Amino acid sequence: MNILNKLGFGVWSPDPSAMDPTIPQSPDDDSPAPGQQFAQFGAGCFWEVELVFQRVFGVTKAEVGYTQGLLHHPTNEDICTGTTSHSEVVRVQFDPKECSYDALLDVFWARHDPTTMNRQGCLYDCIFSFLGYM
Q1: Do residues 61 and 38 make contact, with C-beta atoms less than 8 angstroms apart?
Q2: Where does the Peptide methionine sulphoxide reductase MsrA domain lie (predicted)?
Q3: Which of 45, 65, 104, 122 lies most in the core, judged by the most C-beta atoms within 10 Å?
Q4: Is 45 a catalytic residue?
């Protein structure tokens, strides 16, 4: 990648090997701790959203990452090109006995208002999913 592409100018073409669907992926052995559940939220910049969820009673872990993109294992530099179709997300592990999924949605909607300026509206995909494991 040349310097103009790194700065966000010019046409960017990802490394073809990075987009190869035959690239071996690590096993998806990531599951919540016993008695816990996962939920995933996309509300703009994940660092701020992660901090909000870390402070919720019943949340035992909050992790940031990317979803729905074209590259395997994207870097922040890849994402900043705007060509990978990824969205920033926070995956929350929570204890459903202490915190309901509905309560997490309340936290999400208090933080994310797509109708108000600077509240992470149309610039970001709104993603939330519930991954219940028991």
Answers
A1: no
A2: 39-122
A3: 104
A4: yes
Question: How many structural domains is the chain composed of?
Answer: 1
Ramachandran sector of residue 73 (left: φ over 0; alpha: ψ -120 to 50; beta: rest): left
61 within domain boundaries: yes
Instruction: Specify if 3 maps to a domain.
Output: no
Instruction: Quote the pTM value.
Output: 0.64
Residue 121 sits in which domain range?
A: 32-131
- Mind listing the pLDDT tens digit for each residue in 101-126? 999 999 988 877 777 665 554 344 44
Given a contact cutoff of 8 angstroms between Cβ atoms, the answer to whether 103 and 52 are in contact is no
Query: For 55-67, what is each residue's pLDDT tens digit?
Result: 999 999 998 888 7
Asked whether residue 124 is assigned to any structural domain, the reply reads: yes
Q: What is the DSSP string of 7-76?
A: TT-S-----GGGG-TTS--------PPTT-EEEEEE-S-HHHHHHHHHTSTTEEEEEEEEES-SSSS--H
User: Is 76 part of any domain?
Assistant: yes
45, 99, 122, 126: which is the annotated catalytic residue?
45
